[in-house]
Design brief:
Length: 142
Amino acid sequence: MPRASRVVLVLGVALVALAGCSDDSTTPTTPTNFTTTEVYAGTLNRGESGFYSFNVTNGGTAALTLASVSNAATGRVLDTSMELGLGIPAGEGCNATTTVTVSPGLSAQISSTVSTGTYCARIADIGNLGSAATFAVRIVHP
């Protein structure tokens, strides 16, 4: 390879390398907040309630969804209204500060801003269950 061609090649490589190391100021990016999805599933008898505690590691939005309710004996899907709550554990229970009466659905039925700490999801029969029912609550939180 002639000397002039080698010089042009070396200069071209140097320019490409310098372009990759430019000193342009850039705005730092904000880290993406990751969410955790947990499922609280169990069985409730008529008039009972239950709760599930979870830890929030970063502030953000927690969302609860009563995803399903089924007859425990037959597995038949029920369109039964239940009380769903979000709160803070208290002794051997859950002090639900936000509650709604909902039927199973696909979208979040409770959405609330939370900070770092321990929270709980509560589910309760409001008198609509005729017999034991299985349930699933989806909890999405930071």
